[in-house]
Amino acid sequence: MSGTILVTGGTGYVGSHACVLLIEAGYELVIIDNLVNSSSVVVDRIEQITGIRPTFVQADLLDEAALDAVFQRHAVAAVMHFAGLKAVGESASRPLDYYHNNVGGTLCLLRAMQRAQVNTLVFSSSATVYGEPESNPIREDSPRLATNPYGQTKIVIEDILADLHASENGWKLACLRYFNPVGAHISGLIGEAPGGVPNNLMPFVSQVAVGQRDKLRVFGDDYPTVDGTGVRDYIHVTDLVDGHLAALRYLEKSGDPLLNVNLGRGEGVSVLQMVAAFEQTCGQKIPYEIVERRPGDISQFWADPTLASEILGWQATQGVEEMCADTWRWQSMNPQGYGG
Ligand code: NAD
Ligand code: UFG
User: Fold this and answer.
1) Which of the listed residues 6, 7, 8, 14 should we mutate to test ligand 1's pocket, taking the one with most ligand atoms within 8 A of CB?
2) Most buried among 91, 273, 305, 335, using CB within 10 Å?
3) Is 297 helix (H, G, I), strand (E, B) or coil?
4) Is the peptide bond before 137 cis (omega within 30 degrees of 0)?
5) Residue closest by Cα to atom 15 of ligand 1
6) How confident is the model at residue 76 (pLDDT cuts 50, 70, 90)?
């Protein structure tokens, strides 16, 4: 494989894993990231893993001149678009920032792509577009009913991509709806490094395990689930980025597709099951207490991953054990994330 891929948000959690995979698959990369939620150290780590240093442009997607300069300097064949703000709670208190950054940033990117005549895009959507599902597993044709501004930005972007696709020939577009990405690269050199108190389960659990936090707060044990705690479809981040490569290859060889595809494993795992698996991996107890439900939380959801398997020939291969082992390796090697 050859060609230059522009990776927006490439120093972030999922984007950095995609960069490693794309380099290993023979692509040249240009990363654009404004580092609002990541560190430039990630570029060093990508080089350490792959032996190749990707081009890194520190720029904001809202800066159209910077985008034009990238497209002028590099023969970009396709874009993987990870850049965005992603904290659900924060999106409720700062909706304008979320729409401005996520929707506005995507519009700037698409307009720059149009000017540069680059028409292939893989976009990071989210299972959050489904809101509270009527039933599980969730298929792609389930209704989209986001329950927070972050999720709404993903729906708006999916709709913009559909309108663009209908407006002119040539666009090859894939919206990948992630379920719950966890884990880290097997090297332990890149992983999830949230700033401040983690919102998500696995970074919190692993910070408890390395002694940075006293105990996990489990948000509710009275859901109608296997043990009363919330159930999610956790997917290893390296499986997730494999799905991106499969989507890119599909777009490269197809007509003008517009895809909306779930990337999940199709298996629900509860909070307490995840904690028990992590305890096995790290060989110690994870102290926790049951507290009130988190406002806005959904009791349970998991993917129907059939479409990804049929269209992209992709399915996740790694289980909860690998997710825990790789999270633990990353967390133990980098207790302070990229700052340590
Ligand atoms: P992340 O925050 O680690 O990475 C996003 C990157 O985008 C960061 O490096 C940030 O600095 C950059 N960025 C944000 N706004 C930017 C802008 N205006 N210009 C340039 N760079 C900007 O998040 P992640 O977990 O890697 O998520 C990647 C994508 O996947 C996001 O779009 C997110 O919404 C989506 N997603 C993530 C999850 C998850 O649980 N991690 C689930 C579903 C969907
Ligand atoms: N949980 C706890 N304690 C914590 C953190 C989480 O008990 O400290 C529980 C939650 O209540 C939930 C489960 O762990 O039952 C998973 O919670 P996460 O916050 O890790 O994940 P969510 O499914 O709530 O949300 C994440 C992203 C969203 C995205 C969604 C689907 O934050 O942006 O996955 O992809 F939309």
Assistant:
1) 14
2) 305
3) coil
4) yes
5) 84
6) very high
Residue 102 beta carbon below 6 angstroms from any ligand 1 atom = no
Is the pLDDT higher at 81 or at 2? 81
Cα gap 192→190, rounded to integer Å: 7
Mean of pLDDT values over 268-289:
97
9 CB less than 6 Å from ligand 1? yes
- Contact 312 CB / ligand 2 (< 6 Å): no
Tell me how far CA of residue 77 lies from CA of 29, 35, 72, 248, 251, in angstroms: 10, 24, 12, 10, 11
pLDDT at 298: 94
Pocket test for ligand 2, best of 82, 102, 142, 232 (most atoms within 8 A of CB): 232
Evaluate: CB of 203 within 6 angstroms of ligand 1: no
**What is the C-alpha to C-alpha distance for residues 86 and 153, in angstroms, rounded to an integer?**
10
pTM: 0.98
Q: What is the mean pLDDT of residues 1-11?
A: 88
Nearest to 310 by CA among 246, 252, 267, 258: 246
Ligand 2 centroid–CA 303 distance in Å is 15
Q: Which residue has the tokens 């099951």?
A: 273
How crowded is residue 90: how many other Cβ atoms within 10 Å of its Cβ?
A: 16
